[in-house]
Each structure stands twice: as structure tokens, then as C-alpha cells.
Amino acid sequence: MSVPVAPASQVSPVDLLISGARLLVTCDGPVGAGSELPGGWVAISGGAVVAVGSSTDPVPPATRTIDATDCLVTPGLVNTHHHLFQNLTRSYAPVLNGTLFDWLTGLYPRWTGIDEEASYLAAWIGLVELALGGCTTSADHLYIAPRGGGDLWSAQIAAAAEVGLRFHPTRGSMTVSVKDGGLPPDNLVEDDEAVLASCERLVRRHHDPAPLSMLRFSLAPCAPFNVSPELMRATAELAERLDVRLHTHLAEDPQDEQYCLARFGRRPLDQFAEVGWLGPRAWVAHGIHFDPGEIARLGAAGVGVAHCPSSNMILGGGGICPVSDLRGAGAPVGLGCDGSSSNDAASLWLEARTALLLGRQRSGPTGMTARQVLDIATRGGAACLGRAGEIGELSPGAAGDVVVWEQTGVAFAGAVSDPVEAWLRCGPSAPRETVVAGRVLVERGSPVHPGLPDVLRRHGEVSRRLQRQS
Prior knowledge:
Urease, subunit C, domain 1, TIM Barrel, 8-stranded parallel β-sheet, 35% helix, globular, disordered N terminus
């Protein structure tokens, strides 16, 4: 795709020009329909893309230029599921080799000590880490509310504003404790009324529905095994009234299915539909254990799925997300890093490569290509978050979120035929530059944030405190 550009003497300089790419992939259409521009360039002003072109198109003048010679240039990657607070208990040894439920019950006592400072530090470090993996927009599912911990959501929103990543926090919740047949301890759960009041307050304070917004808020009861059906229904009604999105875990593990059958007498998706969530406002995390009929229902309803390949492999969830089947049925599918200790490496490049390998493992050598994975990591994630056409693509008017992937050196020696396939087949790879809203957050492979050493020190102190407590 090329956009006519007036002569340099007739236009003001754009804020940022990324030019001379080996290949620029716009992701502005379905796989095979989006533009791929050899020698491509993208121009950004006011935080948005204003023009893109190939080597034969005139290049606008720019205040700042990034030379993308020998680089693949893509839209920023979109992370559709994360738990930033969990990097405070990254690779926590006592629970590394259990089931999902073993892992959760082993970590709940540590998370009771999380407060506003801990939430801020975890978000700050986690979002910088995501930028280092090519992520420019991230959702986060913060579902704990320790008593006396304060406003954990506003604390992480403050961190996101400092780091500069486009952010989609969610007001998560747990309301069914061990004594009521759930998993979490009493001091991590709330009552339904308090959750709903907090949801409305946070949405009205923080949610920005404007085009190219840097912050959108969603509502996210944790999972069927730790919230009440009444809260799920009331949350869906509140989201409708406030016009925000819905998120939860669903069909992650065989234990989910066993719990739903025992407690509600129905499978997880049937319970999801029963409480009013089966619609295009919702996206779910994991989505592994769906049968063909359920996949068709998800597609027909437009429910999105966050595919978290590394997390599901680490936790041994007994299956692989049916990504191709879901996409074929019409369900949006994006990528998610998920949280530590279920995935202790928050790199969307790593998730993309793993999705490629798992897709081929599940469906054969033609079951997944690098271009399909790039589409999932960009346009698919944008659709899950309700931002199709706004993020996850490089087209005039879309967000100025760009990643520059250098393809030189030993790891890419001989990879001269297809930069997109080389992106995931070679490596390991990390962005040379990550740009959000026209602002460079990663430059020459390093974060630009001068406060990083101090935040790392403080994060370490809080992490050690939490992991010492019983």
C-alpha cells in the first residue's frame, strides 16, 4: 500500500519516520491481503500513522528518522492476557511442578502481601519487559484484592503511564473462598457488592474510549471456580451499561471442567453462556478444552480467545488451544504471555514462536505459518480487545505502534528468502526498536527509561519480602 506524499517543500516534517526496511508488513488486512512493502517506510505524527510506502514512493521529511536497513518492520504486538503482579513471585520454586490448582493454592498466601507499591513496581517492570519483547499494547488481569492493600489498579495504571505502553487493565475479582467451595483464602476475596462498586468507580475514573486511547478498562471476574454466578451475571450487566469489555479464564485445564460439572452441573462454556457472557463483548484466556460444537458457538458469538502457549505447556493443561479451528469458526484469537510462575518469560516474540510450533504440532506442517502467527499477534489481539483497525496494523489513522526487528548476524545468516518466516524460525530475536504512539521505548535493544535500576532494586526488595512470608 502506498500513500501519495506531497513534495517535501509543501509539507511539515512528520514526527518520526522509520524507513528503508528490508520488508515492512502492514497487517492491514487478512493473511495474504495485507501489504508487504520491500524497502518500506512508515511515517508517524501526533501518535498516529500518517503514511506508509515502499522504496518507490517519495519519503516525507521527518523530525526524527530511524534507519531500518536489514530489518523487518511490523505493527506492535498485542498481549491479550497477563498477570503483571505475578512477576513478584517469578519462578517460585515450591510450586513449580504441580497442577494449576496446586500452583494457585501455593501462591495465594504470598500474594496476600501485595499492596499499592508492589502493584506499581510489578507493572513497571512487567511493561518494560513486554516492550523488550515487541509488545506495544498489553491487557492485564489483576484479580486479587488483599485486605488493606489499597487501590492496586490505579497503582499499575500510574506505572503504565510512566513506561509509555498502551494499557488495557481489568478489574479482576474473587468472591468464593475455600470455606465456600472455592480456591483462594478468605483474605483474598471480596463480596459481590464491593467488587461491583469498585468496578464502576475505576471505569469512570480511568477508562478512555477515545480513538487511539492509551488506556481502556475492562471487567474481569477471575474464573468460574472463584467467583459466584451472581457476580458473573451482574458484571456482564454492568459492562453493558458502562460499554466496556469482559474478560475471564475459561476451559484452561481439565480441573475447570470437573469443577463446573460438579458445582453447576454443566460444562464451562455452558456456564459461561448461562451467566450472560456469550457475546462479542467478551474475550477469554486459554480456551483449550472446547469441543467442535463449542468452538462453533464461540465463533458465532464473536467471543475472543487469548492463546497462551508457554503457560499452557508449563502447567501441562492436557491439550493445545485449537487456534486454527477457532479462527476458522470466526472467533478472534490473540496471544497472551500469562503470568509468572506459569510463564516466567514475558516475551510476545517467544509466545509467537511457540504458537507457530504448537500450531504445526497440532495440525501438521501446513497447520500454522509465521504470517498467520503475526496476524494473530497483531490484528487478532486488536480484535480481542475491541480495537480492530486501530491497533495491530500500520495504516493511515491507526496507532503509531511499530516494532523494528533487525535480521543480521549469526542467527540470521542465510535467511535471505523470507523475512517474515525468518522472524520466527531464526533467532532468538528481540526488537531493536519498539515504538508506542510515536515514542521510542526500546532503542538499539535497550529500554530508554532512566529509572530502571532503581525500580529493579525496589522490586527485588518487595519480591523477597513476599516470598519469605508464609
